[in-house]
Amino acid sequence: MKLKIAVIALAGVILSSCGGGNPEDVVKEFYAALESKDFDKAKSLATDESAQVIDLMAKAPDMGQNDSKLEKVECNVTGETAVCKCYEEGAEEAEDMKMKKEDGAWKVSMSKTDMMEGAMDGLGDMDMDNVMENVDAGLEQLEGAGDKINQALEDVEGLGDELEEKLDDAMNKLDAELEKVK
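Above: the chain sequence. Below: its structure as tokens.
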């Protein structure tokens, strides 16, 4: 009986070290892997279908990164799936992390759609009217700068024509003087 309990305990330790433990621990390990930019480790903690999203993260590792630390994780498990609330330092709201059991181990489950929804949620906090006003003001400044550049080019062109005329006059005078000397 003691041997049976020892084997079960050992199997539990092995499973939890491979991400088969509880979803909270897997989420924490996943966050740590992303923070250290260990994308291979992150992929090992995620479902096969999540690999494309992690590959995208690897291509732009600093995009969307913040310096917040994960404070706590609370998971609501329903059978073979879970939704974990991830609370970061200083954040007003928790981020949801979907989990799925794959081959008996808890894995992070994310899709490109999830990633886009998260980005759109972030944009939802922006004052789009203010953003558009700033864009319009920037475009007006660019148009004004374009007019100034065009005027400067015309001025330079006019100076070039004037310089060419003066050079022609000087060359004609030099030719006339050279003729006198011959």
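The CA atoms of residues 167 and 173 lie 10 Å apart.
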